[in-house]
Write a structure and sequence with these properties.
single chain, about 180 residues, disordered N terminus, FAS1 domain, alpha+beta, 10 strands, 2 domains
Length: about 180
């Protein structure tokens, strides 16, 4: 590393630098010159969990988590994003006809499962205040979902029961019905 004058900040993990953070100064030698590095310690802001970890921690998305794993989409939704996910609860999956979830989780139905799950995802960080201004949104699948905010918020035929769950790589809006794309 060159001893040229630089602005460098040492971050601890993925912590964000806060202006009010306390600083620790450490000395180091480089070609007989003393270099000072300032390390900032994060004090008050926690790093937010990604969409997957947030859903798993909530405990009401076990079926969704299993489906994302079977579809091979876990790493995608742990990625940078941002993503907006309309997340059906376990109760929403239970509304599907008997045997549907089990059938979808079988390896030979992976393509159909991926289509259903990507129909629940929109690229970007779309908060409830923005959703209510829209009439539709294009999903990762490439199909649009209808949005109706006249009496609460509906995505197609699903009610948004909890909005704006902030995640490190996007936002989750909880819905009470699984969205099914056109075939």
């Amino acid at each position: 590393m060159s001893c040229a004058l630089r602005s460098s900040v040492v971050l601890s993990g993925a912590a964000m630098l806060l202006a009010s953070s306390s600083a620790a100064v450490a000395g180091a030698k480089c070609s007989n010159k003393s270099v000072t590095t300032v390390a900032y310690k994060q004090e008050s802001k926690e790093t937010k969990l990604d969409i997957i970890d947030t859903a798993v921690k909530a405990g009401s998305f076990k079926t969704l988590a299993a489906a994302l794993k079977a579809a091979g989409l876990v790493e995608t939704l742990k990625g940078k994003g941002p993503f907006t996910v309309f997340a059906p609860t376990d109760e929403a999956f239970a509304k599907l006809p008997a045997g549907t979830v089990e059938t979808l989780l079988q390896p030979e139905n992976k393509d159909k499962l991926v289509a259903i799950l990507t129909y629940h995802v929109v690229v970007g960080n779309v908060k409830a205040a923005d959703v209510v201004k829209l009439k539709s949104a294009e999903t990762v699948l490439g199909q649009t979902v209808a949005i109706d905010a006249t009496d609460g918020v509906k995505i197609n035929n699903a009610n948004v029961v909890k909005a704006d769950i902030d995640c490190g790589n996007g936002v989750i809006h909880v819905i009470d019905t699984v969205l099914l794309p056109r075939e």
